[in-house]
Amino acid sequence: MLVTISQAIVGSIDLMAAFLLMFGLWRMSSPVTAPSGILVAGIGMLAAILASFLYVFSVAAAARSHLPMNIGLAGGALVLGVGVAWWGGRKVAITAMPQAVALFNGMGGGAAASIAAVELFGLKTHGAIPLTVTLLGALIGSISLSGSIIAWAKLDALLKKPLHLRGLQVFNGVVLLVALCVGGYIVLTTSTALTQVLPVPQLIEIFFGISLMYGVLMTLPIGGADMPVVISVYNAFTGLAVGLEGFVLQNPALMIAGMLVGAAGLLLTMLMAKAMNRSVAKILFMSFGPGAKRKRGAIKGSLKPVQASDAGIFMRYAKSVIICPGYGLAVSQGQGKLYDFVKLLQAAGVSVKFAIHPVAGRMPGQMDVLLAEAGVPYDLIVQLADINEEFKTTDVALVIGANDTVNPEARTDKTSPIFGMPILNADQAKKCYVIKRGNGNGYAGIVNPLFYADNTYMVYGDASAVCVAMAEAIRGLGAPAAAA
Amino acid sequence: MNFQIDIGGFIALYIFMVTAFAGWVIIGRVPAILHTPLMSGSNFVHGIIVVGGIFTLLNATTPLEQAIGFIAVLLGAGNVAGGFAVTQRMLAMFKTSGHAAEHHAKHARPGKRAKPTAVKAIKAKKA
Fold first, then answer.
1. CB spacing of A111 vs B30 below 8 angstroms
2. Yes or no, beta carbons of B58 and A21 under 8 Å apart
3. N or C: less crowded end of chain A, CB within 10 Å?
4. Which residues in A6-97 belong to E strands, given as ranges?
């Protein structure tokens, strides 16, 4: 009786939770409703977690004697995990958001893989299909765990250079194939009377080892501007792993939530790839090699450095300014200083807008969040497709820490590695200022003809420091100028 | 009455298919400006794996199962809490310009004057 009642309660709460999670994501389609969306999803999640403790009434007979210990462990793990992650999530800087998301995503993948491990080591799944699904979930979850950790290390600048090794892609392919073979052998040997070469637990250990290794190997060669795609792919992977383990545990709420995220991650991945005009497969399995560097010399013109104060004052007397921010702005934490400068321009009657390239930054939409943190109202933030025509009629395009996303080569040069990628038309503005730390090239390793164009002027320096200098210059004009 | 859930292979495929389609449609509506919160929000959603972790840990019988189950719950809990904290923080930062709202109010018909006060109220709430 108690079993039936507890199952009915858990069942209905999970049903509600699955709905609330979907509804929460649905409400994320507008900045106005999004904050309530995450709250709705949070309520659903909390209810599902609390209800899951009702499973104590329906545990298997063998586990009943361990129940007090297990409840204690579950409660302890829950409090510890929530406590640490909540503290971390509250404290992390907004500029470090891609790392944080990668880390939390890896945790989810690890949890899915751990559940699969318990199922496999405890020989709890029977039959070829459930076993295959468990192993698949274990594989994807493990890849997501180790891959996300590498991605986190890269984004946190613990790992600096993408690894380029000859034949690494072939080697990775072999590793994946071996993992699949070991998995297939585990299914065969446990569901048929096939002779065992190695005891099953050892095979399972090998399987997890190879899967984790593959995640590391797959992520090491990818870097820089391709990071948004990687984070998105691992998000989809974890979702998929959760969905598969949901099937193994016969929990539809897990299946729905997992698959929802799997589909979402896939869609975002494809959007990112489209914004870079590269296929997902190319990003994951082919990195910009040294071959991408080509001869220079075809570029006409010269680099024309100017002082930050001159640039600031020129913009003060312009009619319209479009700002194109890139990863360099995030690195220098200059978003707040930039908005201070923008407010001075607005006070002087200059129309200012922000143009966002879909792959600016290290995560889809990172620039939007960064500007929001600085207090920039979102109606000033315009996406590439909606603003690109406006550059022609704009006085000044201000490029801050961006490079490949404003490289006109993508439009004209068929041999360029970024040919075909939609770019911000900063070169079409009447005048273009580029704030840059030095003369280095962008992630793609190509020279940017925009910097050499007749109407482009370079302001060298840290984005944050330059913004302060530009703002100082405008303030230095004094009250009479502001009143004019 | 029996509330035991039993999902066979094909039912599972149907669930996956419908959900994947729903996910595709739901996410397709989200504007690019919200892609980072969306990603961290969906990251939070797959944290529901912690429920599976609790189920697994409660059914553990050996020390090994208990140890791995503990890790599963720990990681899952981290996923949920971290995902929520980060997403909520980001979404709270998105605001529209009061400047633009006043501009709208000036040109709106007299009956629509409620707008600026509503915006102010929202801002006050956040502060």
1. no
2. no
3. N
4. none
Task: Evaluate whether B84 touches B48 at the Cβ level (below 8 Å).
Answer: no
- Chain B positions touching A82 (Cβ under 8 A) are 77-78, 80-81
Q: Which domain holds residue B73?
A: 9-94
Count CB atoms within 10 A of the CB of residue B114: 10
> Model ipTM?
0.85
Pair (B78, B101) in one structural domain: no
Q: pLDDT tens digit string along B13-49?
A: 999 999 999 999 988 888 888 888 999 999 999 999 9
A25/B42 touch (CB, cutoff 8 Å), yes or no: yes
Residues of A in contact with B62 (CB under 8 A): 122
B13 and B60, same domain (yes or no)? yes
Are both B39 and B77 inside the same structural domain? yes
Residue A396 belongs to what H/E stretch?
Answer: strand A396-400
B26 & B40 share domain: yes
Model confidence pTM above 0.95 = no
Are residues B70 and A73 in contact, defined by beta-carbon separation less than 8 angstroms? Answer: yes
Active site residues of A: 404
Q: Which residues of A touch B14 (CB under 8 A)?
A: none
Low pLDDT (below 70) residues in chain A: 193-197, 224-225, 286-299, 439-445, 478-484
Domains, chain A? 95-288 (no CATH), 308-483 (3.40.50.1220)
